[in-house]
Design brief:
Pfam families: LytTR, Response_reg
Shape: globular
Protein name: DNA-binding response regulator
Largest sheet: 5 strands, parallel
Strand order of the largest sheet: 2-1-3-6-7
Keywords: DNA-binding, Phosphoprotein
Order of helices and strands: EHEHEEEHEHEHHEEEEEHEEEEEH
CATH architecture of the largest domain: 3-Layer(aba) Sandwich
Strand content: 25-35%
CATH topology of the largest domain: Rossmann fold
Number of strands: 17
Number of domains: 2
GO molecular function, one term: DNA binding
CATH superfamily of the largest domain: Response regulator
Number of helices: 8
């Protein structure tokens, strides 16, 4: 069985690839962006099975499906909430919730092996419409508990969100630093892609907070924010092109 992974977070892609190889399967390609994926499909035989992350750095995976229209069986990987997962089930589209559990991965592949002949006809158009409508409203504020008090932070006040020592922190333009109870993977679908970009595994930046961008080593970029200072504000090499496209939008 020919398998392709489309996932913009390299650690997640590597972990999924390792899990598949541990089950005895070979991954033909790991792709990270909409643009790269379309180019790959144009010059390669389509896979039997496609693991597809919904939210990519330069768009959403439905942009790929609209252009290349593969007949591959699809397993979506997602960090979306329970409402979105119900939508997957109702539309007969299989999914794996991140972080992906070994047994769930094994069961999902077995399900598609049983359904390969004939392949299931999935109503991707209806699901895409449902997906776009669901995520059209993005989070506008965070309510953060500080001791016995609650503080409301709007997304306009955010300079960046970063992970450190197994915690996730929100930093504001008032130099406030607050601990959140969600991971970066869970937060990204809630934030407007027009305003926020995940520059690397550990950091999400807000567009209006960027003060300067400098060329860094190994074809990477270094971000300087208006208040938050860190040597970790590096756009990873595989995300530089998508980041530049984001700046131009």
């Amino acid at each position: 069985m020919k398998i392709v992974i489309i996932e913009d977070e390299l650690p997640s892609a590597r972990l999924l690839r390792r899990k598949l190889e541990d089950l005895g399967y070979t991954v033909s390609a790991v792709l990270q962006t909409v643009e790269e994926s379309i180019e790959w499909f144009m010059s390669n035989t389509e896979p039997d099975l496609l693991f597809l992350d919904i939210q990519l750095a330069d768009g959403i995976s439905f942009d790929i499906l609209e252009q290349v229209k593969p007949s591959s069986a699809i397993i979506f990987t997602t960090a979306y909430d329970e409402y979105m997962l119900r939508a997957f089930k109702q539309n007969s589209i299989d999914y794996l919730l991140k972080p992906i559990e070994d047994e769930e991965l094994k069961n999902a592949i077995e399900k598609f092996r049983q359904l390969r002949h004939p392949k299931p006809q999935l109503d991707l158009a209806s699901f895409e419409a449902l997906f776009r409508n669901t995520v059209q409203t993005y989070k506008e504020r965070f309510t953060i508990k500080i001791g016995q008090n609650l503080k409301v932070v709007t997304t306009q006040q955010i300079e960046c969100i970063y992970s450190e020592n197994k915690g996730t922190y929100l930093y504001t333009n008032e130099k406030g630093n607050y601990l959140l109870d969600q991971t970066l993977d869970a937060l990204m679908p809630q934030l407007s892609p027009k305003d926020f970009f995940r520059i690397n595994r550990s950091t999400i930046v807000q567009f209006d907070a960027i003060k300067n961008i400098a060329v860094h080593s190994n074809a990477r970029l270094k971000i300087y924010l208006k208040h938050y200072e860190s040597d970790e504000l590096i756009v990873s090499r595989e995300k530089v092109t998508a980041f530049k496209n984001w700046l131009d939008n």
